[in-house]
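Lab notebook, design round three. We kept the backbone fixed and only want residue identities now. Task for the bench partner: fill in a sequence for the structure below.
Input structure tokens:
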């Protein structure tokens, strides 16, 4: 490297130090610098895996790529909150089935709030605020097209620790062929994942229609098809006033119930107004709030506790079997 071009020389020249005097000194500095920079470079290159391990990033390999992709991508993309404290998985017994509510012991007073048709520009944020104040985690069934328009709001839902479910791309009701149904669901799953890092395992059919091709595709894809056991009526064409919305929810509250509410698909200011009172009323009845995967997990655990006991009894009663 000719000294005339060396930035260090240029820098020192400004202080009137001649090239001649500097030559040996510069050589040492240059060598030291090159050695230093390259060793840092090499150690960075070689240390990538160590760094990944420190950061908790696991690079997907071969077959495991499919399962670890979600976590790896969350860790790689700093803006996405890793879904570590969110339980999105659905117990195997519910995959590919249609669920209206969880069957729990009557004294297990849990209930799941679900919000459909968002994310919306105004009401979703208001709902998030109310849920945060009450320390409640809920489940949001999002429309793919809305996620595309309001990605920041979708991100906020995930960042707040709520579970996101698939509510199709267009919210169509009509009968559709396999390819259309697949596209409606797959595109939505894709944009939810790319936007929030959440992998959807729950599907809710628009309008609750189970026979237009969507639910069939979702079941084949091992989604839990989530219906509801009670609704406020907030999405009806002539939806009731706030006190009636609250009353509707409180009246039919029971253990394992799934409540249908809306944060999108129109002006949902009534739902937003009713929500704090619904929550207060349910709390007063002794309910606590869980997400859909948590609710299903509770039923699975209750059931496995029963089946774990029964074979012993069966063997005892029928020793020949
Ligand atoms: Zn809907």
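Proposed sequence:
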């Amino acid at each position: 490297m000719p000294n005339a071009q060396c930035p260090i020389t240029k820098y020192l020249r400004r202080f009137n130090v001649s090239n001649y005097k500097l030559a040996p000194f510069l050589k040492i500095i240059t060598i030291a610098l090159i050695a230093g920079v390259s060793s840092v470079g090499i150690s960075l290159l070689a240390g990538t895996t160590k760094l990944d391990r420190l950061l908790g990033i696991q690079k997907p390999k071969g077959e495991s790529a499919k399962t670890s992709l979600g976590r790896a991508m969350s860790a790689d993309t700093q803006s996405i909150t890793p879904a570590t404290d969110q339980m999105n998985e659905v117990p195997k017994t519910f995959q590919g089935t249609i669920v209206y509510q969880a069957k729990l012991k009557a004294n297990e007073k849990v209930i799941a709030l679900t919000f459909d048709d968002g994310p919306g520009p105004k009401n979703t944020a208001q709902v998030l605020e109310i849920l945060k104040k009450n320390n409640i985690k809920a489940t949001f069934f999002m429309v793919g097209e809305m996620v595309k328009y309001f990605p920041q709001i979708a991100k906020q839902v995930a960042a707040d620790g709520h579970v996101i479910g698939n509510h199709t791309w267009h919210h169509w009701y009509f009968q559709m062929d396999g390819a259309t149904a697949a596209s409606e669901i797959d595109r939505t799953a894709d944009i939810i994942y790319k936007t929030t890092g959440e992998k959807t395992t729950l599907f809710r059919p628009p309008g609750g229609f189970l026979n237009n091709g969507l639910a069939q595709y979702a079941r084949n894809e091992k989604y839990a098809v989530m219906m509801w056991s009670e609704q406020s009526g907030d999405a009806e064409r002539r939806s009731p006033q706030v006190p009636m919305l609250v009353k509707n929810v409180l009246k039919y509250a029971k253990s394992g119930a799934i409540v249908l509410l809306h944060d999108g698909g129109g002006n949902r200011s009534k739902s937003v107004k009713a929500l704090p009172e619904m929550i207060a009323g349910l709390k007063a009845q002794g309910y606590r709030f869980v997400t859909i995967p948590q609710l299903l997990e509770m039923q699975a655990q209750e059931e496995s506790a029963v089946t774990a006991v029964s074979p012993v009894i069966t063997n005892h009663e029928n020793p020949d079997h």
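Keep this in mind before ordering anything: The chain has two domains: 3-46, 89-302.
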